[in-house]
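Deliverable D5.2: sample structural annotation.
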Amino acid sequence: MRATLGVGLLLVLPACSFDLDAIARPGSRDGPAGDGGADAGACSPASCQGGTCRGGQCCRGCFDGMRCQPGTEVTACGAGGVSCATCDDGNPCTQDGCASGTCTTVPITGPCPGGICVNAMCDCGDAGEPCCTSGPPCVSGLACNASQTCGSCGAVGQPCCGSMCASNAVCNNQRQCVACGTTAGLPCCAGGTCAVNLSCGNGSCVCGALGQACCGGQSCTGSGVVCAGGMCAPCGSQNQPCCTGSTCGAHLTCALGTCQCGDRDQPCCGVASCAPNLICNPITMTCQCGMVGQPCCGVSCSTGFACQFGNSCSCQAQILCMPGSAFLCSCSACTGAPGFNKTCNDTCQWGDCCGVCPNDFQTTCCPG
């Protein structure tokens, strides 16, 4: 006797029309929320591979109408910059989740309103199951007993009905029905099902390891594993979720819950790779734009510099290089950096004052 529950629709959050530039975003100095702090003027299909430009920002997760989200949560699921979806099918006998930007459902066991979960449906009236509250309480040949279960067999602590037990029990080697599926360590129920936030592994209900459900829906065990979308997933590598404490592997940074590199102000990918229109600073090993000798950030440069010479930032006035100054030229004076005590000379190299001047801009420091 089955009670089929209605399945709710996935809700897609519409994108709103307003000024996204008014919203601050993490990982950036001044722009709206986006994917890892990309400059508003720099987003294009070429620089936003695997994502979608949203208000001038590269979004590789999902967009909730106001900002880009990681796209790994049940309440905000999606990938490639699509609108976020809410993963809720309205069925008490399934566990909703989000994996790789796609909503998922997993059948679970346990009680449901008016019955018990069997094959992703709320059921009542069969042997060992709760008695139905409407219509006949049990199927033909069974009666509702004092424990409000149908029949004299099949429930936990009762003999097996042949080799069968109720959906919240399994028949053991002693032909007795024992509890299953409700807590970690118990046998899996029929069909390899367990309660919410548990997975069936080698015949037992488990949680917390890679590929298993998150214990309590929140935690995982071991290093390199994090709870994402209700499941324990690998973390810390490029484009994987950030590990506990927002940590990532070498040459990566945690941005919007994902380990990333190559975007503006992020670590350089690999040896010295950055997204288009960015350059890897070999001193800081971060991707940059907008300073003298660097690519323009879209069509703009930092204050005092102009985007010219074919997408390169240059000074708008004579560069002053004072003897004994260090590392970086500005349009008014050389500015120092701790640990870099290089002086101005006529040999242009990266890291000294001359080395960051454009080759075709003549000054006493950089004679061209």
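Annotation notes: The chain has no helices and 29 strands. Residues 1-40, 317-368 have pLDDT under 50 and may be disordered.
The annotation will be released with the project's public dataset once the embargo ends.
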